[in-house]
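Hi W.,

Here's what went into the run:
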Amino acid sequence: MRSRDPTASPLLTDLYQLTMLQAYWASGMNETAAFELFVRSLPPGRNFLLAAGLETVADYLLGLRFADDDLAWLASTGRFDAAFLDSLRDFRFSGDLDAMPEGTVAFADEPLLRVTAPLREAQFIETRVLNLVHFQTLVASKAARCVLAASGRPLVDFGLRRAHGGEAGLLSARASYLAGFAGTATVEAGRRFGIPIFGTMAHSFVQAHDDEATAFADFARAQPGNVTLLIDTYDTARAARKVMALAARGVPVQGVRIDSGDLAAHAREVRRILDEGGLASARIFASGNLDEERVAQLVASGAPIDAFGVGTRMNVSADAPFLDCAYKLVEYAGRPRRKRSEGKATWPGRKQVFRRFDASGTMAGDLLALESDAADGAPLLAPELRGGARVGPAPTLEAVRDRARAQMAALPPRLRALAAADPYPVEIAASLRALAAQIDAQTARQ
Amino acid sequence: MRSRDPTASPLLTDLYQLTMLQAYWASGMNETAAFELFVRSLPPGRNFLLAAGLETVADYLLGLRFADDDLAWLASTGRFDAAFLDSLRDFRFSGDLDAMPEGTVAFADEPLLRVTAPLREAQFIETRVLNLVHFQTLVASKAARCVLAASGRPLVDFGLRRAHGGEAGLLSARASYLAGFAGTATVEAGRRFGIPIFGTMAHSFVQAHDDEATAFADFARAQPGNVTLLIDTYDTARAARKVMALAARGVPVQGVRIDSGDLAAHAREVRRILDEGGLASARIFASGNLDEERVAQLVASGAPIDAFGVGTRMNVSADAPFLDCAYKLVEYAGRPRRKRSEGKATWPGRKQVFRRFDASGTMAGDLLALESDAADGAPLLAPELRGGARVGPAPTLEAVRDRARAQMAALPPRLRALAAADPYPVEIAASLRALAAQIDAQTARQ
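Here's what came out:
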C-alpha cells in the first residue's frame, strides 16, 4: 500500500495560517482580500526570472479540502475550537486567481500572481502557494540560463538524486523542461508530466563487470537503439577504443558519455577516435558538476560536445538557492493595504504589469501600475481561476515551453548574457506611488 | 480524492537504473553487490556532518514494489522487454542495510550507509536513497550549526514556504528537529513525525484589520494561552505599547515577534517597554533572514531575544545547498571494486568507521578501515536491515535527537565553532590503501 500523499495534505502549511483562520472565524472577518506574490529582488548576477508553478497552484487550489482525519488530528492538538474545525469541512477555494502564464519573463516587484478571495481562503493558501511558485520559478530561471548558455545544444536534467526531496526532483524536471531542457532522467516526471526521459548507464555497471568491454557489449545487447556508453570509469581514451571495437562487430552505438576530468579535452580526443573509426554519427554527451557557466565555457571552447547532462547545480539553483519572495495582502474589504516593515515595504492595491515592446519585438520596459490604470503595453497577468473554477483548459507543458522560448527570444540581448547587465527598466506608475503615500498618511497613526 | 503519492512511486528514479536492470536481467547478473554512500568533501567552512535520513531510507526499501500501472506505463514507453517488466512484479528489497544511526557526527569519505543485496536491488535504489540521505544530512548539518550558534535558546523551523517543494519542507522539519531545533511551523510535520508545532501570526493579519490594536485583541481572544503577537508591521515600539495596553486590560500575552529591521536594537527597546509595563514574562521571538551566523551575532550582542525562527537559509542550506555525495559499488560477487575516474576515485571494499575518544569522552579521531579489520575504537555503522527486514524497532525521533545532542557534545571544541577549523582527523587504514593499490594493479589493463 502506498502512503497518502503528504504533498497533497491541507496540513502542509504553517501553523499560523490555522491560528489566524480561527481568529478570523471567531471575529467573523471574511471580506474579499487580494494577495499578490512577488519577488523583492533578483539574486546577484541574475537578469530576469522565468515565472513557473502557476498550473500546480491552480491544481492545489482546486483540490484543497480537509478530510476527516485532518480535522481529527487538528482537534487532537487541543489548539482549536471544535466549531471552528467543523467549519473547515466545507472549506474550498472559491476565489479568483490571476497570474503571469508560466514561461513569462518577470522581474523584481512584479506580481507573479494575485489571489482574490474571501479572506480566510486567500490567507490559508499562502504557504503552499509560495512553496510551489518559489521553487519552480527558482529552477526555471536557473534552467533558462543553462539553455541560453548551451546555444541550441540539448540539455537533460540529471538532478533528482541531489534535489531537495522527491517533489523537488519532479518539479525541477518540469521547470527545466518548460525553460527549454530537452528532457529529464527522472522516470516519474516522464509519466506525470509527459516529459521526454533520457538515460545512459552508471559507473557501477562497468565496475560490476570483470571488464569494461563486456559491460559495453552487455548493455548494447539489452538496449538496442538506445546505446549510450559511459566511458570514463577507468581510462576514457581506452574506453573509446573499446566502443570502436564493439561497433566494428556490427553493434550500433548511438553515443558515449564523459562524466569527469577535463571534459573539453576528453571530448576532442574521443571525437577523433570515433571519427577515425567510422563512428562519426555517435554523439558525445558530457556531464559532471555542470552549470550554465561551465556549459558556456565548454561551448565557447569549441569542444565537440553534442549534449549536456545538468544536475545538482541546476536543480538546487546552487548560486542562488532561494528567491526573496513574498505573498502580501494588498487589499481587504475594498481598501488597499500596505506593509511598512523596515526594508520590506510593499506596494498596495491590485496591480497589473504592462509590458512595452520596440518595433523589432524586443522587450522595451515594464510598468507596474494599478490594475484599474489604463496604460500602454500588454498586460501580463491574466485570469486563471474565477469563482474557484478554471476560466479555460490548462495549457499543455509544450505550449508553456513554446511561450518560454518566445519570451526569452524577446529579451534585450544584454539580459540574455550570463553576466549581470544593466537592469531591465520596471517603472512604478505615478498612480501607485500616490496610493502608497495616501495609505502611509492614513496609517501613520498606527 | 487525493492523488497517489508521487514520492512513494518506484518510478521516482533515474531512467538508467531501469535500463541497467534490464541489462543485468538479460545477462543474468545478480550476485551480491555492496554499495556505500559517502560525502566526498565537506562544504567550504563546514567542520562536520550530522547523518540523517536513514530511517526514511529503511521505510523506502521496505515499501518498494512496482504496481500494475507502474509496469503498464513502463511498457508504454517501448523501451523495455515484456518479460523483464514482468520480472519486476516480484521485485522487493531483500538485502542488508548497515548505517550510521541518524544523529551521528560524520566526515568526508566515511560511509553513511552500506547496502548489501542482489545487484539489481542494490543498484535500483541508488537514486532515491541518495535523494533522501543527501537532503536530510544536508539540512541536519546546517541546522546543527544553528543549534550551536543559539547557545541553548530555542529555534523553530519556519522554512516550508521557500523549501524546495513539499517533501523538502517536511524532511527539513524532521532533520532540523533531530539536530536540536525545538520544533517547526509545518503542521503536517507535526502530524507525520510528532514534532512540536509553533505559530504566531502574519503581517497580513494586522493589515487586514483597520487598526493594529484591534488585530492584537482579536488574535488574543481566539488563541488564549498561545498569544504571540507580531509587532513590526508598522512601528515596532508603538506596537509594543499596544501590547502593553492589551495586557493592562487583563489579556494574557505570552510573547511578541519581531521580523524586520535591526533585530537586536528592536529587541532591547521592546524588552524595556515590556518590562516597564510589567510584562517581564513575555518572551521575544526574532525571525527574518536568519542563519547560524546571524543567530551567533545576535547572541553575542546580548540582545534580549528568547527564541529564533529560522527559515529559508536553514531549509535550503543556503551557503552550501548540496553535498558532493555518491553511492558507489565497492564489491561485487565477492570481489572489491573501485572507480578510478579522475578526481572521483573511491575506496574499495566493505568498510567500517572506527571512532576513538579521549579520556574526557571527546572524539579523538576516526579510522576508515575494511569491515573485516580489527581496529580500536567504536564502529559507527550498525545493522539496520537484514534480509529485507528490520533488525529491531526503529528508534524514536526523540531518541535520535538525544543521540545528536550527545554526539555534538563530544565534538572537539574547535569543530563546534562556526568558523572553519583544522579538520578532524580521519585516517585511512593501511589495509584499505593496500587493497586499493591491488585493485588498481588488476584493472590497469582496462
